[in-house]
Design brief:
Blueprint: E1 7-11, E2 14-20, E3 26-30, E4 33-35, E5 38-39, E6 45-46, H1 58-69
Antiparallel strand pairs: 1-2, 2-3, 3-4, 5-6
């Protein structure tokens, strides 16, 4: 069976690779670095790079991200940020080492 999210192409000098992830969701790589894809309410796709216009397919969303990136590279995935409450404070279960200044 063919992967519905599969693509492998060169676009504007970048290698775009797409495939279905473990849960069947689309996964996209740009030059080997992961690009987060998000599903829109209208059925389209957006990325954090170009999230203003919904694209009809994961490939189209990946191309739109490359268009916005220009010559810049995607950053490697960093460590996730600590979760915060809406008021900006950390949740009680999230511990942080605090030091006091003398």
């Amino acid at each position: 069976m063919r992967d519905p999210h599969a693509f492998d192409e060169m676009y504007r000098g970048r290698r775009l690779l797409g495939f279905s992830g473990p849960g069947g969701e689309p996964t996209a790589l740009v030059d080997g670095r992961p690009l987060h894809l998000m599903r829109c309410a209208d059925g389209g796709w957006v990325t954090p790079i170009d999230h203003y216009e919904s694209c009809p397919t994961p490939l189209a969303a990946t191309r739109a991200a490359v268009d916005e990136l220009g010559t810049a590279r995607l950053s490697p995935r960093g460590r996730p940020r600590r979760p915060h409450r809406p008021d900006g404070r950390e949740p009680a279960w999230c511990t942080r080492v605090r030091t006091s200044a003398i």
